[in-house]
Amino acid sequence: MFGIFACMYLEFSQKLNKILEGVSNCLIIPHKNPDADALGSSMALFVFLTKLGKKVKVILPNSAPEYLEWMTNKPDVISYDENSEKTKRYLSNSQIIFALDFNSLKRIGSLGKEIENIKTPIIMIDHHESPEKFSTLFLSKPNIGSTCEIIYNIMKTINNKLIDKEIATYIYSGIITDTGSFRYPLTTAKTHNITSELFNKGINHTKIHENIYDNFSFERAHLLAVALKNLKKIDNLGVVYTILTKQELEKYNFKKGDTEGFVNFGLRIKGVNVSVIFIEDSNEDIIKISFRSKEKIDVSKFAKKYFSGGGHKNASGGFSNNSIIETEKKFIASVKEFFTR
């Protein structure tokens, strides 16, 4: 099994190396509303390619959440929503584009339209289900817990000596978040082996954890209290959900990323296997939905069937264009239909 695993990375890395031979300008793009896995894989690859002698830029479809800004505090990292003209220049100058932690151009918002209009080769590296065909070369591994784990194996195959403390810090950040601090089902022995190797690179795992998890503002803590207060349970189905309205978000000065992780609290309740959060987004005039589940319950199928979403088996997203009241009614009916079949 390990031989097949190693050969997969070797074959992909050889193809990637051949493409990189004649390339000097590289571009890296993670998904919109980037999390630690998207940013960690992007920044790790940024440093790695720079060490290979490439000129590298990172374009975020929109700015990183405040609690992850420490990862992107570099002049070569810009956000499309704040620097659209500079983004277009970078796109026109790039010889290769890396699409990381997403497998559909819809996941990068309006930046996807810009990508569709250029002929630059695209390298997609991702771990989500059902990849779309928009890339020249891709490595899609839904059975791996994070894109950071995939990126690490690629870098290790190409040149392990270039992986330093900074790269290891980015990789560890993505792994701990997308594995739910190593508790999600896709966490494997290989994941822990990689973590051990990252420790040997000198990472400060305590500081990384503090940067990601121990940085609540007072207002964010109040918002969490509201989300927990609003928690409801659908009897006999092991499903809980909570709703945050735009009025509640405004009251506590909501910033992007403030609700990260809120949905997971429902799974801490005994007998609960599915937890959902609905967030009313006044800027985009939609309701964003996050789904989390335990073990064999596939919320990606539920999200795809009822709320135009998808993602992972145990962690998915979706949205609704209806009102909060209509969305809640539809959700309750859908849960009863889906989970009582």
Explain what this protein looks like in three dimensions.
- By secondary structure, the protein is of the alpha/beta class.
- It folds into two domains: 2-212, inorganic pyrophosphatase (n-terminal core) (Alpha-Beta Complex), CATH 3.90.1640.10; 219-338, Diaminopimelate Epimerase, Chain A, domain 1, CATH 3.10.310.30.
- Helix content is 43%, strand content 18%.
- The protein has 13 helices and twelve strands.
- The strands form two sheets. The chain has a six-stranded parallel β-sheet with strand order 3-2-1-4-5-6, with helices on both faces. It has a six-stranded mixed β-sheet with strand order 7-8-9-10-12-11, sandwiched between helices.
- Helix 3 links the parallel strand 2 and strand 3.
- Helix 2 (36-51) runs parallel beside helix 6 and helix 2 packs antiparallel against helix 7.
- The longest helix has 19 residues, at 2-20.
- The protein is globular and about 60 Å long.
- The two termini are 36 Å apart.
- The relative contact order is 0.10.
CA(first)-CA(last) distance: 36 Å
Count of DSSP H/I helices: 13
Oligomer: single chain
Instruction: Please write the CATH class name of the largest domain.
Output: Alpha Beta
**CATH homologous superfamily annotation of the largest domain:** inorganic pyrophosphatase (n-terminal core)
Proportion in β-strands: 15-25%
Radius of gyration: 20 Å
What is the CATH-assigned architecture of the largest domain? Alpha-Beta Complex
Which word captures the global form? globular
Largest sheet: 6 strands, parallel
Q: How many domains, in number, for the residues?
A: 2
Low-confidence stretches: none
Task: Kindly state the percentage of residues in helix.
Answer: 40-55%
Q: Please provide the ordered H/E string of secondary-structure elements.
A: HEHEHEHEHEEHHHHHEEHEEHEEH
